[in-house]
Each structure stands twice: as C-alpha cells, then as structure tokens.
Amino acid sequence: MSDKTFKIVNGDMSDGYHTFDELYEHRITLFIALCKKIQDFKYHGDARNIAGDEKIVWKSTKHHDGSEYDGWFIMGIGIDQGEQISYHLPMSKWDMTDFAEYRKRAPKWDGHTSDDVLKRIDSL
C-alpha cells in the first residue's frame, strides 16, 4: 500500500496564485509548443540539436492495446522504449496538434513515470 494520502480536489482549487485548471492549461499549452518546436527543427533545421533524429512527435486517440479514454488523446515525443515523453490531452486540443504524426495506436507505453518525463524533457 502506498504511503501517499490523496484528497479529492477540483479544478477551482488554488495555491493562492493559480487554479489547478489554469496550471493544467499551461502544461498542455507548453507541451504542445515544445512538440511543435521539435517538429519545426526536424523539418527546418538540424533536429539532432534539440531531440535527435529518432524523436518522432505523434498523436493517437488509442493506446497501443486499442483502449482509449473518451474525450482524450495521447500526444508524445519519441516512440522507443526508455525515451518516450507523453501526456493525455483533451480532444479540444486535437486541431492544435495537426503538425504531429497521426498514429492509429500509440507506441507501447514504456512505463515512464512523472519523474521520468521530467528527466527526459530536461535531456532534450
């Protein structure tokens, strides 16, 4: 059993400066902007300077096993095990990500954690 205690919160909860909804909107917007920049470098410059040639920016409505979350899609950087960075994003952002490679199914999830994602973003 985990030693973490969870409290039920809603998007209106605030740290005194920002609500959860605002912070999630910032995270989503920043991730989309990062993915777009990686694609821009890939097609208009030297992609290896930012993410390496193997870093593919992709999106899918389905997980690798065909399952999906209603109202959400997955967007990621990289498809190889040990290199993936991915988030679930609301379908309302789908059109903002038209630069990403569409995949019928997402790559098989490599088990990355929130800490892994932070380290992988930092290494780009």
Number of DSSP E strands: 4
- The domain tally reads 1
Strand order of the largest sheet: 3-2-1-4
Distance between the termini: 34 Å
Low-confidence stretches: 49-53
Average pLDDT over all residues: 87
How much helicity do the residues have?
25-40%
What can be said about the biggest beta sheet?
Answer: 4 strands, mixed
Question: How large a portion of the residues is in β-strands, by DSSP E?
Answer: 5-15%
Radius of gyration: 16 Å
Helical region count? Answer: 2
A few lines on this structure:
Helix content is about 25%, strand content about 15%.
Structure description:
This protein has 124 residues and is α+β, with helices and mostly antiparallel strands. The chain has one domain (20-122). It is built from two helices and four strands; from the N terminus they run H-E-E-E-E-H. It has helices at 20-44, 114-122; strands at residues 57-60, 72-77, 85-90, 101-102. Strand 2 (72-77) and strand 3 (85-90) form a beta hairpin. It is globular, with a radius of gyration of 16 Å. Mean pLDDT is 87; it is low at 49-53.
